[in-house]
UniProtKB/TrEMBL annotation:
Organism encoding this protein: Lysinibacillus pakistanensis
CDD domains: Beta4Glucosyltransferase
Protein name per the record: Glycosyltransferase
InterPro entries (alphabetical): Glyco_trans_2-like, Nucleotide-diphossugar_trans, TPR-like_helical_dom_sf
Name of a matching Pfam family: Glycos_transf_2
Residue span, Glycosyltransferase 2-like domain: 5-98
């Protein structure tokens, strides 16, 4: 069985670090905590799990801190987590099985990263990231913000998942780092250009975000998944600027990179639905339900293939007074979100409507 070092960078994580370490302490052989300047009880809580706590002078560069954390590892493999990450009970068992069966020829192992959950506790969006890497390969982190781990060699996609369960978030940290980079005159990589645009969008700076998304896309150096997301984000900018024409063209632009994705179909469906073009909207929402996605796709947002298109189709068929079809789609949406207020309201509405139809017939 392989041995594993956990490496984490933390700062002021007293609310979540105990939860994280409790979920992983029985899975790893060593815990390394790199503190970048906590002023709360983060380090005291970490001491309950490990004595390997190191200080790192924060230089506004996440990759530098993560690379330092990897340098402290002494075991065969390195696992990395953030303080607001957790291995749920099911994934703890999967991790134990992975650890027992892992062939030491494997250089890096990817795991799903569950980013958000619906009202029923089901995963609604996820990405796949390399979480477990062989120490002697000396893989490096790259990027001041939204850093990524550059891996290669023999790779394995596992069925283990890490769940992201934040309690709070510093909304200005990342954009401030990017602003410092831009002001210093340091050129942004295509990836950083994309993520800086995301920060600008999140902060409501839509015109600036448009500039950086266009800069990113016209460079033709981006990862295809980021290219597609950039098209959707452009659409969000234009939507906020009430520019419907460019909203539509931005979604269609994503077709340059791949077949229509379910998210693109739902966005097109919404565009036509908003313009009361019901049949066109129905077409696109139905496409979202029939397109097959790779189960190991790096980005997945399940709402676009589950309850959302069904709920919208319910509204559209109701507009057309096709109540049986509308009710059927509402029931399909209810199978995913059974306690949703809108779905339950629709259920009662269609019970009344269909009851009247049956009486009249």
């Amino acid at each position: 069985m392989v041995s594993i070092s956990l490496c984490m960078i933390v700062k002021n994580e007293e609310d979540v670090i105990g939860r994280c370490l409790a979920s992983v302490k029985d899975l790893v052989d060593e815990i390394n905590i790199i503190d970048t300047g906590s002023t709360d009880s983060t380090k005291e809580i970490a001491k309950q799990f490990t004595d390997r706590i190191f200080n790192f002078n924060w230089i506004h560069h996440f990759a530098a801190a993560r690379n330092f954390s990897f340098q402290q590892a002494t075991k065969e493999y390195i696992l990395w987590l953030d303080a607001d990450d957790v291995f749920l009970a099911e994934d703890q068992e999967k991790f134990k099985s992975l650890k027992q069966s892992l062939n030491s020829n494997i250089d890096a192992v990817s795991m799903n990263y569950h980013l958000s959950f619906d009202s029923e506790g089901h995963v609604s969006s996820l990405i796949r990231r390399y979480r477990l890497v062989k120490r002697d390969k000396h893989f490096q982190w790259i990027g001041a913000v939204h850093e990524y781990l550059e891996v290669g060699g023999h790779l394995l996609d596992s069925d283990v998942a890490v769940s992201h369960l934040p309690l709070s978030h510093d909304h200005t940290r990342n954009i401030n780092i990017y602003r410092q980079l831009v002001q210093s005159g340091e050129p942004l990589s295509p990836r950083d250009t994309f993520y800086y645009a995301n920060e600008l969008l999140d902060h409501g700076q839509f015109e600036d975000a448009l500039f950086y998304y266009e800069t990113f896309l016209t460079s033709k150096l981006g990862w295809v998944e980021d290219n597609i997301q950039a098209c959707y984000k452009l659409a969000d900018c234009y939507s906020n600027l009430n520019d419907k024409e460019n909203y539509l063209s931005s979604i269609l632009r994503s077709f340059e990179y791949d077949i229509p994705r379910p998210e693109a179909c739902c966005r097109l469906g919404f565009h036509f639905m908003d313009n009361h073009k019901n049949y066109e909207a129905i077409f696109w929402y139905e496409q979202a339900l029939v397109i097959k996605q790779n189960p190991n796709a790096p980005f997945q947002n399940k709402i676009y293939t589950t309850w959302l298109p069904h709920l919208q189709l319910c509204v559209l068929f109701d507009r057309l007074q096709q109540y049986e079809l509308a009710n059927a789609h509402n029931e399909l949406a209810r199978s995913f979100i059974p306690n949703d207020e809108k779905v339950l309201h629709n259920k009662k509405y269609f019970e009344r409507i269909l009851a009247k139809d049956h009486k009249s017939s």
